């Protein structure tokens, strides 16, 4: 039961990645000023959020295995 909060954190991390990705793709599809201003920043945030999600996932697997 001690891994339950970590699982919820993993779900939250994945949802954050999904929201950032959807916002970035939506901005790219619409183009215009928003994409020029925030497109690269959103994709950098997505990469950082994915790295955090992978780290949480590996920590979750490590705790579950031991």
From TrEMBL:
Q: Which InterPro entries match?
A: Hypoxia_induced_domain
What transmembrane ranges does the database entry give? 6-31, 43-63
Alphabetized PROSITE patterns for the sequence: HIG1
Residues in HIG1 domain copies: 1-66
One Pfam family, please name it.
HIG_1_N
Q: Which UniProt keywords apply?
A: Membrane, Transmembrane, Transmembrane helix
Q: NCBIfam families from the entry? A: twin_helix
Descriptive protein name: HIG1 domain-containing protein
Tell me the lineage of the source organism: Bacteria, Pseudomonadati, Pseudomonadota, Alphaproteobacteria, Rhodobacterales
